Amino acid sequence: MAARATDAEAEEYAANAEAEGEEGAGAGARQSAPEHELPLLTSADELQRAVIQNDVQVVLLLAGRAAAHDELLAVVRGLGCELWEIDPRGPAAAPAPRDGARPLYVAGFRCRPLLTAPLSRRTSAGKRALDIAVSGALLLLAGPLLLTCALVLRATEGPGVIFRQERVGKDGRLFTVLKFRTHRPADSQESATRWSVADEHRISPFCRFLRSTSLDELPQLWNVLRGDMSLVGPRPERPFFVDRFSRRYPHYAQRHRVLTGVTGLAQIHGLRGDTSIEDRCRFDNAYIDSWSLWQDLCILLRTVGCLLRRTGS
């Protein structure tokens, strides 16, 4: 295990491991180590003391070693550290990601976060049942409204009333989010990398109305019914900004432990649009860590109140 290592240190460590035939790294990985390497930690008490004394926030574990260090991993998780598994074989030897998951890299080595599952199988099934029931009912009830919005957009803005964009979902998997098109970017680069704000000047009054009432997000009910999203959860973001925010804000990547949502705890507290990403991250992870079906119902009811007050959700 290592914490706060620089890219150069990580590369040197991996090179030493490969040269000496080391299959994995971690506390207790070797009985003897050259003097220039990090000290060896062989017990949970030693690890806990080292994490606290050095203010460790991130722990790297070489692939295949997690099962051998369950006790030690529980210690660092309990101290609030982020856990990442890194493949020391390099990009060429690493298997291709499955299920659309986006590969992440540290110093050229593929890695992935080791996140604890926030929901059990039973609670996940309950949340999914709520998503299907509510999104299905809303799609039926809001059908005339969806059709009206689409027709007005077609008449005022031209063809292409549905906007499709790639977003990052649960476990880093990519999916296509659906919205009513309220803005036409100059090109695909602008669409992928330009941060949207509420007072965008290049949109029509009707499109501004759709945004202010969040009606532009009604097509996302189809994403919920399909299982791409949930009714309640962290808002999905574009890959460009996920990469940027994951490097800048601690624990941002942990938002992807659950399905992203149409609304969430951060949104009902006014954190949407051009607001603090750090605060959003804090609210999103607090929602995940304290999840309950009752909390989802309360957030949905408060979202309705936000929509009626025209404050968005």
Structure keywords:
single chain, 313 residues, alpha/beta, four-stranded mixed beta sheet, two-stranded antiparallel sheet, 42% helix, elongated, membrane, transmembrane, Putative CPS biosynthesis glycosyltransferase, transferase, phosphotransferase activity, for other substituted phosphate groups
What does this structure look like?
The protein is of the alpha/beta class and 313 residues long. It has 2 domains: 7-113, no CATH class; 121-308, no CATH class. The protein has 12 helices and 8 strands. The chain has helices at residues 7-19, 44-53, 70-78, 121-141, 143-157, 188-193, 205-213, 220-226, 239-248, 265-268, 277-289, 293-308, and strands spanning 58-62, 82-86, 104-106, 109-113, 162-168, 174-180, 230-232, 261-263. The strands form 3 sheets. The chain has a 4-stranded mixed sheet with strand order 1-2-4-3. Strands 5-6 form a two-stranded antiparallel ribbon. A hairpin with a 2-residue loop joins strand 3 and strand 4. Helix 4 (121-141) packs across helix 8 (220-226). The longest helix is centred in the middle third of the chain and has 21 residues, at 121-141. It is elongated, with a radius of gyration of 23 Å. The two termini are 41 Å apart. Residues 1-7 and 20-33 have low confidence and may be disordered.
Short description:
The chain has helices spanning 7-19, 44-53, 70-78, 121-141, 143-157, 188-193, 205-213, 220-226, 239-248, 265-268, 277-289, 293-308; strands at residues 58-62, 82-86, 104-106, 109-113, 162-168, 174-180, 230-232, 261-263. The protein is of the alpha/beta class and 313 residues long. The chain has a four-stranded mixed beta sheet with strand order 1-2-4-3. A two-stranded antiparallel ribbon has the order 5-6.
